[in-house]
Amino acid sequence: MSPEVLIGMLAELERIRELTLDLIERETPRLHPAPPDEAGETERTVFDLLLGARRAVLGNPAAARGLHDLLLAEGRRYANTPRGARLRDGLVASEAVENLRRVWEMVSLNVLGGPAAPNAGPDAWADLLADAVIGHGLDDSILARLRPEGFA
After folding, report:
1. Rounded to an integer, what distance in angstroms lies between the CA atom of residue 124 and that of residue 68?
2. What is the rounded distance in angstroms from the CA atom of residue 24 to the CA atom of residue 130?
3. Which DSSP letter does residue 114 get?
4. 82-119 CB burial, b ≥16 within 10 A, e <16
5. Angle at the Cα of 59 (from 116 to 65), degrees rounded to 5?
6. What is the pLDDT of residue 114?
7. Which residue, 22, 51, 64, 120, could crosslink 57 as a Cys pair with Cβ 3.0–4.6 Å?
8. Could you give the CA distance from residue 30 to residue 56 in angstroms, rounded to a whole number?
9. What's the start-to-end Cα distance of the chain, in Å?
10. Where does residue 32 rank: exposed (0-12), middle (13-18), buried (19+ CB within 10 A)?
11. Per the confidence metrics, is the pTM higher than 0.70?
12. Within 10 Å of residue 73's Cβ, how many Cβ atoms?
């Protein structure tokens, strides 16, 4: 197979992936909410950034899982150093870390956790799609626009 054919195949796969993600967003609009009407410029920028991160995670869950696992491994490695242990101990009860966890959960929808074969999308990906389609109820006024109904 020539390099030109391989590049053409990769381009076609990317086009199909993009069309699939567009279809998912169109059919499950709760995954792609409208920005808040009253949002200022800074809030709109943050909202767009978080929505873009969600699209990246959902658009390529295997790559996102690889990055997630790499960051976790590096964090654990650093936490095993004296300096990292001090930082970890200082962050354990931090409200900022709890807020960051909540933001991450709304952006990633927790699709990166749990078992997954190497170079495969996480099992939670299929669960996410089911939750988005049959979900229930919203809470948390700040992140509610990023949380699909029924997502815990």
Report:
1. 14
2. 12
3. S
4. eeeeeebeeeeeeeeeeeeeebbbbbbbbbbeeebeee
5. 30
6. 65
7. 64
8. 16
9. 47
10. middle
11. no
12. 10
Q: What CA–CA distance (Å, rounded) separates 94 from 74?
A: 20
31-68 pLDDT, tens per residue? 677 777 787 888 888 888 888 888 888 777 778 888 88
Tell me how crowded residue 60 is: count the other CB atoms within 10 A of its CB: 16
**Cα–Cα dist 54/34, whole Å:** 14
For 115, the token pair is 């078992």
Q: Is the predicted pLDDT of residue 28 greater than 70, yes or no?
A: no
Distance from C-alpha of 124 to C-alpha of 113, rounded to nearest angstrom: 7
Provide the residue type at 58 as one letter.
Answer: L
pLDDT digits (tens, 9 = 90+) for 85-126: 999 998 888 888 888 888 888 777 777 766 666 666 566 655
